[in-house]
Amino acid sequence: MLDKVISKTRPPHLPPKPRTEDRKHLHDWEEMMKKSRAAGDFRHGVILPCFAFVTSHLGSEEKRRKALQDRRLARERRIEDSLPIWEREIVPDWTVVHRNPNLRRLWWQGIPTKLRAPMWQAAVGNSLVLSKGQYARDKALIVVLMTASDSYKTCLSRARRALASGSFPTTVLSLLEDDIRTTLPSIHLFMPEKGPMYQDLRDMLCAWVVSRSDEGLGYVVGIAKIAAMILLNMSADQGFIVLRNLLERHCLRSFYGGMATKDDVEAYYRIFDTLLADGMPKIYFNFKQHQVSPAAYLPDWIVPLFLDHLPFEACARVWDVIMLEGDAFLYRAALAILGVLEPRLFFPDKKELLELLRGENKAALEVAKRDGRLLNNGKYEIYGVDEESLWERISSMDEWWRESTWKRLIERELPDL
After folding, report:
1. In the predicted model, what is the mean pLDDT of residues 105-133?
2. How many whole angstroms separate alpha carbon 409 and alpha carbon 159?
3. Cα distance between residue 103 and residue 96, in whole Å
């Protein structure tokens, strides 16, 4: 029977196998059958396909995840071990980091959790809040600015009165509640009605709406993420002042400003395109070919300060540096994200490219589910974007990123700034 099939196991357009090769392949096949039976993979004469491969893949994926976790924990230990240096060198006068390159690098590696609140407050500043009875010019408006605590209490009191009387806009309240529902779902702290920090977040957002209503500005979806991140690190009255001052920085103020700041947002798009063309020309030309402008993805990153797309640990470290460096690092982080995603960006189809940028690529979702990766802790986790890969890319940008280029582009596109 063997002679009937031997040397006939190749396609007819190829020469037959030598008899020795055929016997070897037959022997290998029999060995595979034995192992398959021993593993319980042989059922009614049919081999369960790819079982060994899948098992091996899952095992290697688990090892990869464990290695990443071990490296992350080691980084966290190093940050916490640096606490004495922070308390001795930086806490007394945080501005020393601008004069001391070693301390600046230490800040870039991440702020110890214990010090994040005071360091964020110090770096963001409180330029909007003067002593009682003093005045400050905010664009064309003259507004009375109070102490930090009084400012939050006053805005919150006004919001509560509006809610109680039914005069708080229902459309705004609906947007606000929907925004909360999608905020850091993996940690459950802000879950509507049930989360222990839900009411604090809702109060801060309502107070923020009231504070902006004096300028004729409305709610912007994504603000709940920023407010929640701040609340995880400090009290609501402290956090409200950090939130207000952070969003007064020009880039964020533009993206949160609605139609009144549309021209400024367009200028920021042009700045991003120029930086992308200079530093990552392949991505730039690929986007141009598909007619994908920064408007298609940049607001989704900047408005919630990356919290929708980056894993929490990576985002916290990015925030540490944004607080220190300002708008320029917003763009450096955004470019680094594209750098990590680069191998995936060259789709022949615009629709697929946009799905990938939204974090909705079907193939990547399936692979992530198969590998058991979490899908609710930053949309780009399905692409393997984590703290390690992101910061490797940020560091590699030292070769071409120049703060002077950023300043030159700001002067060119936003001369009145």
Report:
1. 85
2. 40
3. 8
Name the residue with tokens 């509560």.
160
Q: Which of helix, strand or coil describes residue 144? A: strand
Domain 258-413's class? mainly alpha
Vertex 132 angle, CA 130 and 136, to 5°: 45
Alpha-carbon distance of 274 to 281, in angstroms, equals: 10
Q: Please, what sign has the CA dihedral across residues 251, 253, 258, 260?
A: negative
Please give the structure tokens belonging to residue 290.
């598909």
Residues ≥6 apart with Cβ < 8 Å to 153: 237
How would you label 146-161 residue by residue, b for 16+ Cβ within 10 Å and e otherwise?
Answer: bebeebbeebbebbee
How far from 76 is each of 19, 70, 84, CA to CA, in Å? 61, 10, 15
Angle between helices 281-290 and 262-279 (to 10 degrees): 130
CA–CA dist 230, 240 (Å, integer):
8
pLDDT band at 72 (very low <50, low <70, confident <90, very high): confident
Give 355's contacts (C-beta < 8 A, 6+ positions apart).
361, 362
Please tell me the CATH code under which domain 126-248 is placed: 1.10.8.270
Token pair 């009937």: residue: 4
State the pTM of this model.
0.80
d(CA 70, CA 338): 26
Closest CA to 148 of 127, 162, 119, 163: 127
What confidence category does residue 324 fall into, taking pLDDT thresholds of 50, 70 and 90?
very high
8-state DSSP, 180: H
Is 145:196 a contact under the CB 8 Å cutoff?
Answer: no
Q: Give the DSSP letter string of 331-384.
A: HHHHHHHHHHHGGG---SSHHHHHHHHTT--HHHHHHHHHTT--SSS-GGGGGT
| Per-residue DSSP letter, 141 | E
